Amino acid sequence: MISIEGLSKIFTSNKKQITAVDDLTLAIKEGGIFGVIGYSGAGKSTFVRLLNRLEEPSSGRVIIDDQDITAMNSNQLRLARQEIGMIFQHFNLLWSRTVKDNIAFPLEIAGVPKAERERRVRELIDLVGLSERENAYPSQLSGGQKQRVGIARALANNPKVLLCDEATSALDPETTNAILDLLVDINKKLGLTIILITHEMHVIRKICRQVAVMENGKIVEQGDVLDVFLRPKQQVTKKFVEQVMGTQDENEGIQDLINAYDHGKIVRLHFIGETANQALISQVAKKYKVDINVLQGKITQTQAGAYGTLFVQIEGETEEMDKAIGFITKTSVEVEVIRDVN
Ligand SMILES: Nc1ncnc2c1ncn2[C@@H]1O[C@H](COP(=O)(O)OP(=O)(O)OP(=O)(O)O)[C@@H](O)[C@H]1O
What we know:
By secondary structure, the chain is an alpha/beta fold. It has two domains: 2-244, P-loop containing nucleotide triphosphate hydrolases (Rossmann fold); 250-340, Alpha-Beta Plaits, CATH 3.30.70.260. It contains twelve helices and 14 strands. The chain has a six-stranded mixed β-sheet with strand order 6-7-8-3-9-10, with helices on both faces. Strands 2-1-4-5 form a four-stranded antiparallel β-sheet, with helices on one face. Strands 12-13-11-14 form a four-stranded antiparallel β-sheet. α6 links the parallel β7 and β8 (193-198). α3 (99-109) crosses α4 (114-127), α3 runs parallel beside α5 and α4 crosses α5 (143-155). It starts with a strand and ends with a strand. Bound molecules: adenosine-5'-triphosphate (ATP). Pfam families: ABC_tran (PF00005), NIL (PF09383). Belongs to the ABC transporter superfamily. One of its GO terms (molecular function) is ATP binding. This is Methionine import ATP-binding protein MetN.
């Protein structure tokens, strides 16, 4: 749905040239939540602002829904922008307007008649969960509520695309989660395509299906979130995965486990994203005469299911233990017996 071809942005400051976005080519599917992650200065903000031409590209093309955004004159662009909503880290609300009037603002600009505007504003206030606060001013709202206003305003004209520029970076972790849940909800209900940029892997893990990693203005790695979690290739990507999973000093840990637990089998279970397997441990314990002792591990949830590693000790008759392991092997959880005492 969104096709980005050879997109570049070069800034000139103090006679020096900075290539913020460097010959970037990318295709983004319709209806998903696409994340772009990178450290400060990687070029994420510039990239997202090029998509609706808040920044003018130095070269390259942006095609959204078969429309060449980069070839449009200012009138065409004004109309096209109604189809591309945007939310910001610092909300960018109008401080002299109430919640209701902030949300009505883009409708006024689009020339929507008053009665229709009021109906739409009520609908949006319900959608983002601000029913009690419609007459409040931004200064009377919490950060999360301000971002809800930002989201409602961005959705006012029924855009096909929602751009999120570090939309949760100014919020505490709990509020971040609530806003991310709202974005997932909106994506499902309205089917619009969401592109978000962030420097937090937690945000990607929680709501994105696809991710691109940016460094020095380029995309250095991209793919399904789960694949990137499982097999990060670039150093920068590995660091982002560690934000969520911690460092992998596994080998040292395994030897400690083998030394400490001298009965039964010690098994490594690698969960790779099937939600259907989340009750695996209890299923196995019910089905076979084995005891399962969880020793260590870390599982995290992604939009494609659970991902992570769990070390367990399985005890019981040899035949039952083998059957239990045989059962796990048939699921999508990868099994590796790392110590077999029998
Ligand atoms: N208007 C501008 N003029 C000159 N240089 C700019 C301008 N905007 C961005 N840059 C430079 O372009 C590079 C990319 O900046 P950008 O803000 O896109 O990165 P970012 O990944 O979004 O980082 P951050 O999260 O810190 O904003 C940086 O080196 C930045 O200094």
